[in-house]
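agent> fetching stored inputs for the 1-deoxymannojirimycin docking request
agent> found them:
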Amino acid sequence: MPFLPSRRAVLAVAAAGTVGAVLPARATDRPTDAVVAQELRDEFVHGWAGYKAAAWGYDEVRPISAGHNDFFASGHTFGLSIVEALDTLWLMELDDEVRVAADWIEQHFDPAVDADVQVFEVIIRLVGGLLAGYLCTGRPVLLTRCRELADRVLPAFTDSPTGLPYRYVNLRTGAVSGTHSPLAEIGSNILEFGLLSQLTGDQKYWDAAKRAYRAVLDRRSALGLLGTWLDVETGSWTDATSRAPNPPVDSFYEYLWAGAEMFGDRELRDGYKLLTGAVLEHQWEEYGGRAWFRQVDYANGNVVGRAASALGAFYPGLLAKSGNLLAAKDFHRTWSLLLDEYPVLPEVIDYSGPTVRDPRNDLRPEYVNSAFDLWRVTGDAAHQDSAYRYFQGLRTHLRVPGGYTVAEDVTTRPMRLGDLTPGYWFAENLKYLYLMFAAAPRFDYRSGLLSTEGKLLRGARRVGV
Ligand code: DMJ
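agent> prediction call returned; pasting tokens
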């Protein structure tokens, strides 16, 4: 089924991006790139040491209480932070740590745990992490475990009458559950599954991911917009608000583009263009002198909200990579201006106030993910400056003796801290930053492709390793 962008949509893409494409000027008072790269590597090691000391083998560390957290299922561990860290350790050339991490996976990682796990999280974090680890180290056991795990997740896709995956699966029994699922969870798997099909020669992973995408695209409105939540058994929207680029739809769009890029798939590319054209036409707006994306009814485009999640700060990077550079710069500028007010961004604001709706910060990487993407597309050092400023905010406010922690309230001074280092901290924030400053010899800056969880799925340079 061809998804050709309408002329209107193409024009909307061209028209968006009118707020003022120039980033705020910054005094470049940061150290040299080499010094910054060393600082970033040191901070990664600081967090990693905290995890190893207090929570080794558990999913996540609680760096203040020196406790640990089971991310997927209470009473079960997958060593999540180890899997998340693997390719970052490798890119930073921390090879003793890579070996220790891969050894742990070989000896302890169990893909057949008797627990209901969230399909989306298993795929982007564990399947993706094992794939990236395999590509970086070449250790066959990582691919073996990855395939075992993916096979245990697959019933979520193949048991579904619509092709839209169930939200949960029991890894031991294969029993599926969770009939309501949001777009990000339905459609953030084609990178991992497509790559696994390539590496194993078995099409079934790619086919499952592609079927899920088709099932969603078939359900777009006449405007070319999508809702947020679907019933995976009936195929009906249970929430028909278009919330792009906010969660819980965010990475659905990211994977349409990245899937097209990684596998040269025309259907994904056309789908991305069509949907992005509709989002820019119906949701992009200038409000208070800044660029935003409002929430609208997917059927008629009526405005239903003006919330902005810090997770949506990934979107400028995606827009830049996919050729919408003016809109990308405008929206990144919005987040950079917010960083002037909040050196650590709040989780959610209502920009019509503006008011802070959720004052927490879960150590989010999305702003710096965009800075990284924009820097790669434009080569503009201003994006390194803004990335460094973001890093300084985290280091000043969220660094603790046991690593880095989430904040309960970024509006107080000192910030009220929580007690968790999310697994993605080891996969994302410092990796994007490091790659911007380190001229990392193991990263192919031309072809390198990172997943939504920051996993290196293309562009690991193993020459001489
Ligand atoms: C990560 O798990 C991924 O980036 C995901 O796509 C969205 N949220 C977190 C980080 O904020």
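agent> quick read of the result: The first strand starts at residue 60 and ends at 62.
agent> awaiting further instructions
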